[in-house]
Design goal:
This protein is mostly helical and 123 residues long. Helix content is 53%, strand content 7%.
Length: 123
């Protein structure tokens, strides 16, 4: 009798071992994708003025025109991300009241909302 759960557990362990050994980093041109997506969802524009304080250190890919900051890189990835970011944001807003039932869940949700609202990051 074979044990598929053992095979799955071994694959999962191998995957996370490789991920831990070789972490994935976001390339510079992708760092502005989520803030652009959030700007589209919240304000209906692609200007990144609301996230300007976040970009004091990282300004690669950011350009200024007529006093507004914009993402230099193509808009496609931000447009593709709109449905998923809207779904995740809606889910977190729906689950946030339940966060009071467990302190660590409440802290995690509050931290995510703070990052999401102030910097456009979703990590």
């Amino acid at each position: 009798m074979s044990r598929p759960w053992a095979t799955y557990a071994l694959l999962l362990l191998g995957f996370f071992s490789v991920l831990a050994a070789f972490p994935v980093y976001t390339p510079f041109d992708s760092k502005l994708t989520l803030p652009t997506t959030l700007s589209l969802l919240r304000e209906g524009n692609i200007a990144l003025d609301e996230y300007a304080p976040t970009f004091q250190v990282h300004q690669n890919g950011l350009f200024e025109r007529d006093g507004h900051y914009y993402n230099y890189f193509p808009l496609g990835p931000s447009l593709v991300a709109v449905p998923m970011v809207a779904l995740v944001d809606g889910f977190v807003r729906l689950v946030t009241p339940v966060g009071g039932l467990h302190p660590s869940l409440g802290r995690s949700l509050a931290h995510w909302r703070h990052l999401h609202d102030t910097t456009g990051l979703v990590t």
